[in-house]
Write a structure and sequence with these properties.
With about 140 residues, the protein is of the alpha+beta class. About 40% of the residues lie in helices and about 25% in strands. This is Roadblock/LAMTOR2 domain-containing protein.
């Protein structure tokens, strides 16, 4: 697994990624970046005000989705059966539909412990959402 690269400009890159996601993802109401190695929300933009505890929970929920105990156990079993010794994770993208919103979580390719989160109105064209978010994440390849 790649180690975190806290080089000058990393936080600027993260903020740029969030801004691009917020601008380019269709029907986007919020975007953020979660560092799963620390469990922290690194940056976010939203059209609404949210209590800080909700934002803290977003980071924890993202960690559970991608690297919860059971998920990691399943990955380990498949890696063992397939003879894979890589630290890469199987779950790369997760789409969650709630009552009024669509949430897309995308693991960054270069930094497997960093996840971009985009929240859109439920009416979003999911194909366009995936296409735009993938394009932006590829451009930023942190």
């Amino acid at each position: 697994m790649a180690t975190k690269r806290m080089t000058p400009g990393f936080s600027d890159q993260v903020m740029g990624l969030v801004k691009s996601l917020r601008t380019d993802a269709p029907d986007c109401v919020a975007a953020g970046v979660v560092d799963m190695s620390t469990g922290m929300l690194l940056s976010y933009e939203t059209v609404d005000n949210h209590p800080p505890e909700v934002l803290d929970l977003l980071a924890g929920a993202t960690l559970d989705l991608f690297q919860g105990r059971t998920v990691v156990m399943i990955e380990d079993v498949f890696k063992e059966r397939r003879g894979i010794s890589s630290d890469n994770h199987f779950f790369q993208e997760i789409l969650v539909n709630s009552e009024n919103l669509t949430h897309l979580f995308v693991r960054l390719t270069e930094q497997q412990d960093v996840v971009a989160v985009v929240v859109c109105r439920k009416s979003v064209n999911v194909g366009m959402l995936f296409a735009q978010v993938r394009r932006v994440v590829r451009e930023y390849s942190l």
